[in-house]
Amino acid sequence: MTSFLVSLVILIVGYFIYGKIVDSVFGPTDQPTPAVRINDGVDYMPLPTWKVFLIQLLNIAGLGPIFGALAGALWGPSVYLWIVFGTIFAGAVHDYLSGMISLREDGKSISEVVGIYMGPLMRSIMRGFSVVLLVLVGTVFMTGPAMLLAKLTAMDFKIWLAIVLAYYFLATLLPIDALIARFYPLFGICLIVMAIGIMFGMLTGVGGHVMPELTLANLHPKADANPIWPLMFITVACGAISGFHSTQSPIMSRCLKDERMGRPVFYGAMVAEGIIALIWAAAGVTFYDGTGGLAAALAKGGPGGAVYDICVGFLGAGIGSTLAMLGVIACPITSGDTAFRSARLTLADWFNVPQQAWVKRLTFAIPLLAIGGALSQVNFGIIWRYFSWTNQTLAMIVLWTGAIYLYRKLDNKMISWMAAAPATFMSVVTTTYILQAKEGLQLPTSVTYPAGFVFAAVFLALFLKATFLNKSAD
């Protein structure tokens, strides 16, 4: 219990201290935001800050901090360290910079922002990369809720899948205040109550379960085939850092009325997601009395089954459990719909197609959702693995973009390391993973470990060449 509580406190303190530092370095101003200057009544629209925060939280807090955290918990309580420090120094910095830089660039999608600071070649790569990731995210967050709803009701999985897909179509097409801004606050309350309920159940020892303390040992039931480095850092995904978030932050940069609210909306929402991930990681190893029991549960009923068991076990089969399950279902749905919406906006920015007319929105929405529906028939585990690596690779690219921005735009050049340091770390993680993973090159660790550091060193050298070693950059 002590390890969990200390981790929780560090996350909260990190928001107030390091979040304040990051915000002060960036320097919010009183200049009018895109929501005020552009306001097209569809995607650009000023909204109350509390709504923007809840929408941002629900956009980014999909299955990652729940399913990803449960999968990450297979390595034991050591996952707490990555969730806590990854959130504070990497994930929240990534989310804040992607949102605030987009805001400074008229709310442009992340692929366009990367192109501005990394060049036209990277813009072209990012356009395709972002759309692929967003469709994968939408597919993952379409399948997961349908699985849970099928488990809770007598309706078939495919029927629920069709219903979720129909909702995604409307949320992708309609103005942002028609569905998203109207219903997300209610879903946000469900999500928060769910997290608090699960945490309270653990802390009070419901069911006689004892929370394990932190250990650096690899407690994975198949530890020999699943080293902590780099597998755990990819598996946790959104619970510590997520490139997907950089595709969502521009949606809210088009709705934020005041730059000074960037810290609670962008940095704060990621810390809130880190807390959710911490709770679910702890719940996984606590409820099943260790990683062996958790692995058996995941093998038997999948992550959806584990979520159901934990909710019922800690909150009972009554109102508390139902509310918790609604939160878990709403959480991925509210990320899936905005994934497809963000894909539409990315394509619209790419081809410079204004989106005020609904016919033009249909041009992008129909093929995107058709592809997502087709991919939903592919094995969920395969989609999740490819999503996880693509997700973290995008985060790495966006952090490098943030480092370039900080170097070029601000007087104190050394503060660019606020983004460059986590970008270097994520470069090691992502390249090492794809070299040794089953869906990658499947090379031995004797090759992948040193190769990962070599790749990261190359990326770092390119950054230094473009900034500190390039006199013209000054």
Verbal overview:
- With 474 residues, the protein is mainly α.
- The chain has a single domain (2-380), classed as Amino acid/polyamine transporter I.
- The chain is built from 18 helices and no strands.
- The protein has helices at residues 2-26, 34-37, 49-60, 64-72, 79-104, 110-118, 120-152, 157-173, 180-203, 228-235, 244-253, 262-287, 291-315, 319-351, 358-375, 380-409, 417-436, 445-466.
- The longest helix has 33 residues, at 120-152.
Summary keywords:
0% strand, Amino acid/polyamine transporter I, 18 helices, globular, 474 residues, mainly alpha
Question: In a few lines, what is going on in this structure?
Answer:
With 474 residues, this protein is an all-alpha fold. The chain has helices spanning 2-26, 34-37, 49-60, 64-72, 79-104, 110-118, 120-152, 157-173, 180-203, 228-235, 244-253, 262-287, 291-315, 319-351, 358-375, 380-409, 417-436, 445-466. The chain starts with a helix and ends in an 8-residue tail after the last helix.
Instruction: Kindly give the count of domains.
Output: 1
CATH 4th-level superfamily: Amino acid/polyamine transporter I
**CATH domain topology:** Amino acid/polyamine transporter I
- Principal-axes shape call: globular
Q: Tally the beta strands.
A: 0
CATH architecture: Up-down Bundle
Mean pLDDT figure: 88
Output the structural class: mainly alpha
Task: Give the SSE order as H and E letters.
Answer: HHHHHHHHHHHHHHHHHH
How much strand?
under 5%
User: Would you state the CATH class?
Assistant: Mainly Alpha
Count of discrete alpha- or pi-helical segments spanning 4 or more residues: 18
The helicity comes to: over 70%
Assembly annotation = single chain
Radius of gyration: 21 Å
Distance between the termini: 50 Å
Could you list the spans in which at least 5 consecutive residues all have pLDDT below 50? none
Largest sheet: none
